[in-house]
Amino acid sequence: MADILTFPQKPEDRLRAALRRLDDALAEQKLAFTEFRTNLSALGGAVSGLEASVQEYQGALAATQQDVARSHAAARRLEATADIWLNQAR
């Protein structure tokens, strides 16, 4: 069964009740804002970590690209050498 709440009869009592509810709401809002700032700070740390990881990955890709280019050039030199040897053998 539902509880029946009494409604304050005097205007001062209604005002006091409204002010109490407002104080409670402000305290809850302050707590929520503090939690929001904490979470925002944690998100900033996570984004910074992600940025560092992406930069590291980007560096690894650049190094790999250079290695591939060197390997490709070496393969082309070997191919040219093999062509020369084949032409000499004929």
Provide a short characterization of the protein structure.
The protein has 90 residues and is mainly alpha-helical. It is built from one helix and no strands. The protein starts with 10 loop residues before the first helix and ends with a helix.
| Total of helices | 1
The shape, in one word, is rod-shaped
Work out the radius of gyration: 37 Å
The average pLDDT value, as a whole number, equals 93
Ranges with pLDDT <50 over ≥5 residues?
Answer: none
How much helical structure, as a percent, in the residues? Answer: over 70%
Distance between the termini: 105 Å
Helix/strand class = mainly alpha
Using DSSP, what is the number of strands? 0
The biggest sheet amounts to: none
What fraction strand? Answer: under 5%
One letter per element, helices H and strands E, the order comes to: H
